Amino acid sequence: MLKNVPIVDDFGSLHFLSDTYGGRAYDTCIADEARYTLPNASILYQDAGFQGFNLPGVQIVQPKKKPRNGTLTLQEKEENWRISSVRIRIEHVIGDIKRYRIIHDIIRFSCSEFRDMVMETCCGLRNFRIRLKRKKLPKIKTNLDEVY
Fold this sequence. Notes:
By secondary structure, this protein is an alpha+beta fold. The chain is built from five helices and six strands, in the order E-E-E-E-H-E-E-H-H-H-H. It has one domain. The protein is 43% helix and 13% strand. Strand 2 and strand 3 form a beta hairpin. The radius of gyration is 20 Å and the shape is globular. 9% of the residues are buried.
């Protein structure tokens, strides 16, 4: 299994992608090795895999885990739901990248730099596609418009 850690903005654009790691790699270890930075007063939504990870000057928002042999209060459940409604966009971005067949198939190439380049290329293609969707292109009038 290969793993990367992305940073996605509010609009769904990828701004950072960690190196590709194979096997069992913890998210916090990948994030620590990546040493990325965010502007001060940023808000970082992260999942439970990043337990204990923090950046200076950045507000971390993370769902609360259920205590052992206990339950979460209604307020904690509502907060977790709010956080997950924001984080689902990130999961959609990751799923969108995996649309490319070369990503979800097994890469039988032993060079780790090749895997990184494939992932970076697919992320770039996804960002390009999203920018084209957001850009409002003028409608071109054709002869077919007059018929209908």
